[in-house]
Amino acid sequence: MTAASPAVPARKGAALGWLRRLGTPKIIIILVVAGVIGYLALVPLYYLIWGTFFDANGFTLGGFARAYGDPRVGGMIGNSLWFAVGAAVLSLCVGTALAYLNVRTDVPFKGLFFAASIIPLIIPGILYTIAWIFLASPDIGLLNKVIEPIFGPGFLDVFTVWGMVWVEGLHLSPIVFLLMVAAFRSMDPSLEESALMSGASRWQVFRRITVPLTRPAIVAAVLVMVVRSLESFEVPALLGLQNGIYVFTSRIYFVLRSYPPDLAAAGALAVGLLVLAVIGVAISNLVGRSGKTYQTVTGKGFRPRPMELGKWRPVMGGAIVLYFFLTVVGPLLVLLYTSLLKFYQAPSTEAFASMSLDNYRELFHISDATTALRNSLVLGLGSATLVMVLMAVGAWIVVRSRIPGRQLVDHFSFVPLVIPGLVLGLALSFVYLRSPVPIYGTIFILLIAYCTRYMPYGMRYAVTSMHQISAELEESAQVSGASWWQTFRRVLLPLLSPGLLAGWIYILVVSFRELSSSILLYSPGNEVLSILIFEQYENGQFTVLAALGVVMVLTLAVLVIIAYKLGAKVGLRQD
Amino acid sequence: MQHQRILGSVAAAAVVLFLGACGASPTAGGPAANGANNSSTKAQQVYDRINGLTSDERTKTLLDLAKKEGTLSIYTSNTDLDKVIDGFEKAYPIDVQVYRGNSESVLQRVIQEQQANYDGNDLVETNAGELNIMNDQKMLYPYEGALRDAVRKEGQADGWTATRFNVFVIGWNTTKVKPGEEPKSFEELADPKWKGRISLEVGDVDWFAAMYKYYLDQGKTDAEVRDLFKRVAANAKIAKGHTAQGELLSAGQFALTASSYSHTIDKAADQGAPVSWHPASGTPIQPIVIRPNGVALMKTAVHPAAAMLFVDYELSEGQKILHESFRVGSIPTANDPLAGLTSISVPEKEMLDDPKKWDALYEEVVQSGQEVK
C-alpha cells in the first residue's frame, strides 16, 4: 500500500494519508474494541493453554491423560451430555414460551411477570438447589408430602439426572427468556398476521414463521445453555454426588482441590469444552449469516402489536400462575420460610411459633455488608454497561463489517465462557501482580474479571440482535450523509437496544453471584456480596444465608423492573 | 488489506502487552523468591527480638512497636475469626485489614503474591494442610513464647501454631436415630441396617487418611480397611460441604453423618436442631479425628510486631471468643471437650509428601461404594 517510492515527500504524503485514514473515529473505535476483546480473552487463554500443555519439563499431554484417562470417563461424559442437553432443552422451551407470552400476547401483569421470569437467576445457585432438596427430596420433600396420598411416598426424586435437569433448566431459563424477549421485540408481526390471514393455525404460525425467524437467538441460547450446564457446579455437586452421578465439573473439582491444583487436567477438560464451543459459535454464525432471512427490522416501518389471546387469556393466566407457583414461588417461599427460622425443619405449629426476624437483624450486623452491597452494585452496573457497549461494536465488526479476520473477534469473545473461574482468577492475579500499573488490590481487577467472564454473554445478546437488523437502514443513513459514528449512535444503537438491555440485565444479575474468581481477586475493602454469601455458607449460617438470598431477590427484582420500564421507552415502541 | 493489517497489529499489540506483563512462564514458578528484600530482614529482626522476650516486657515492647506500625493485614479462612478481630481492635489501637476466603484461595493468594514479591499480608490464619505447604516453601517465620508452649502438642507445628482444632465426629439426627440406637463405633456403619441413612462428605480426605492409618495401626490389612470404607460408602449418601451436610442432617435428609465438625453440630443443637454427637448414655463414638488449624507469621511482613501481638491475643483472649463459637481451642481449658476421649491426628507428613495418593484413594472408595448399590 505504501509505495516504495524513493521520493521523500511522496512517501511522507502516503504515510500521512495512511494515518489520516487510520485516524477516523471508525477505525479508532474498531481498533480499540477489537484490541480490548483480544486482550481480555488472551490473558486467561494463554495461562490456560500454558498450564495445560507445558510443565517444568516442557511440552506434555499428561493433563489429558489424567483428565480423560479415568475408566469411568465414558459414563461421566454420558451423564454430562444428558444433563447439559436436557437442561438446555428445558430452559429453551420454558424461556421461549415465557418470552413469547410476555412480548407477543396480552397476558396480564407484564411487569411483574418479567421480574418473576428472572428470579430463578437471582437466587444464588446453592440456595436454589437446597430449596429444591427441601421441596422434592424423596425423604424430606414438602411436595412429596403433599402428593403422597395420591402417588405414594417419595414420588418425586430430585437426586436423579432428571432432577438435576429440572433444577438446572429452570435456574438457567432466564438466560433464554432474556434472549428471546429481545428477539421477539424486534420481530415484525405483519409476517405472522399474513400467515394467519392465509388460514394458518396459531400453532402453524408459531412453528413455521415465528421459530424460523428467531433461529439465530435460539441457536445462541442452545449454545450458551449447553456450555453453561456442562460447567455448572452446585447442581451436580449437591444433587448428583449423593447417588454417584458424576459429571465434567465433579471431575474438575477433584483435579483442582489438592495442592498444587492440577491445572493441566483442569485445562484439558476446559480445552475439550473450548473445542465444543468454537464449533458451536461457527454453527451459530453459519445459521445467522444466511443472508437477509432473519432481518425483520427493515426500512419498512412496523410496530410490534401484542396478539390478543381472547378466550385463551384466562387459561394462559392460569398456566402461568401454576408455573410460577412451581418454579419461582415454591423455592422462594422455602427460602423465606427458612430465613425466619433458627434451623430448617418441616413446617409445623412449633416451627411457626419459633419464627423471628433474627436472621435479618444479623444481616445488618455483618461487618462490611453495606460496603459489599455498594461494591457489588458498582461492579454489576459497571461491568454490564462496559460489556454491552464493547459488544455492540464487537457485534458490528462480526456481523456487518467485511474486515478479514472478524470471526476471530467472535471466537475470542466466546473463550472466557469455558475458562474455569479459578483459572481466570489465577491468570489475572498472575498478570496484575507483575503489572507496573497498580491494579492488583483495587476494585479494578474485579471489574476486569467480570468484564472477561461476561463478555461471551454480552456478545451473544448483541450479535443475535444485530442479525435481525437489516443493513439497508444503515445504508440509507450513510447515503443521507451521516458518518459511521452518527449512524451507529443514532440508528443502530436504538434498534439494538432490546438485545443490549437484555444482556445488560443478565450481566447485572449474575455478577452479584460471581464467586470463583472474585474470591481470589478481591482485597480488604473491596468485598462483594458473593463473598459474604460464601462466608455465611462456610460458617454454617444457612438461615442467615436464606435471609440474604431474600434481600438479594428483592433488591435485584426492583432494579430489573426499573430497567424494564426504562427499556420499554427506548427503541422499538409497542402499542 | 488495510483492515487486515489493522487487526493483525491489534492482535500483535495484545500479545505483546500480555507477554510483557508476564515475563516468565506462569505456571512453572518455583518457591517464593525467598524474601531477600528489605521488609523480610526487618521483619525477622523484630520476630527474633520478641521471640526472646517474656511476660510484661514482651507485651510492652510489642505494643510499642505495633502502635508505630498502626495496621495489620490478615489472610484467613477461619469464619469465626471476625469476632476475635473485633476484640483485638477494641483492645489495641491497630487497624486490621482482613482477606477471607476458603483455605485453597488463601493458599493460592499467598503463593501468587509471594512469587511476585508482593507483601500483601503480615499474618495467615488457615488450615493445617495449607500452612504446611507455605512452611515447606519457606514463607513463614517461627513464633515462640509461653503461649505456644501451652498449646496441645499436636498443634505446635513447624513454622506455625495451632489456634483451634477441627474435631471430626459422628453426628446424628435425634429424631431419626433414637436414644440407644446410636452406633458404638465407626465399623458398625458398614452394617446394611444403615443403608441410605448415613452421609459422607466428598472432600474429607484428611479425616479419611487419619481413620485409614488408625485401622492399619489396629492390625487390619490394607485390603480390610479398604473393604470397611467401601461397605460404609455403599450405605452412604454423598454430600458436598459440611454446611449443606449439617443443614440436611438437621432437616432429616440423612440420619447420621460420619465426619461432621463438632462445631457444626454444636451450633445447630444450640439453635434447637435435633442433632447431637453425644449418645444418651456414655461417651461419644471414638476415635475422634482432630486436625489443628492455626496461625503463622509471614517472613516478609510489613507489620511484624502487630502480627505477633495478634497471635498473642488470639492465643489468650481469643481462645475464649473462639470457644463461644463452639470451636475447640488449641490451649486445653478446665472444661476441655476432648478430655478423656481417644483422639487421632491426620498424617500431615504423608499428606504433604503425596497428597494425590490420598485424594485418589478416597475418591475411589467413595465411587466404588456407590457402584455397589
**Count of beta strands of chain A:** 2
Report strand % of chain B: 15-25%
Shape, per Cα inertia axes of chain A: globular
Question: How helix-rich are the residues of chain A, as a percent range?
Answer: over 70%
Distance between the termini of chain B: 65 Å
Describe the largest sheet of chain A. Answer: 2 strands, antiparallel
Please give the domain count of chain B: 2
Q: What gross morphology of chain B would you assign?
A: elongated
CATH architecture grouping of chain A: Orthogonal Bundle
Q: How would you describe this protein?
A:
The complex is a heterodimer of chains A (575) and B (373). Chain A has one domain: MetI-like fold. Chain A contains 26 helices and 2 strands. In chain A, helix 9 packs antiparallel against helix 10 and helix 18 crosses helix 23. Helix content of chain A is 73%, strand content 1%. With 575 residues, chain A is mostly helical. About 6% of the residues of chain B have low confidence. Chain B is 48% helix and 17% strand. Chain B has 2 domains: 164 residues, D-Maltodextrin-Binding Protein, domain 2, CATH 3.40.190; 160 residues, D-Maltodextrin-Binding Protein, domain 2 (3-Layer(aba) Sandwich), CATH 3.40.190.10. In chain B, strand 1, helix 4 and strand 2 form a beta-alpha-beta unit. In chain B, helix 4 packs antiparallel against helix 13, helix 5 packs parallel to helix 6 and helix 9 crosses helix 15. Chain B contains 15 helices and 12 strands. Classes of the chains: A mainly alpha (575), B alpha/beta (373). At the A-B interface, helix 2, strand 1, helix 6, helix 20 and helix 25 of A face helix 1, strand 2, helix 5, helix 6 and strand 7 of B.
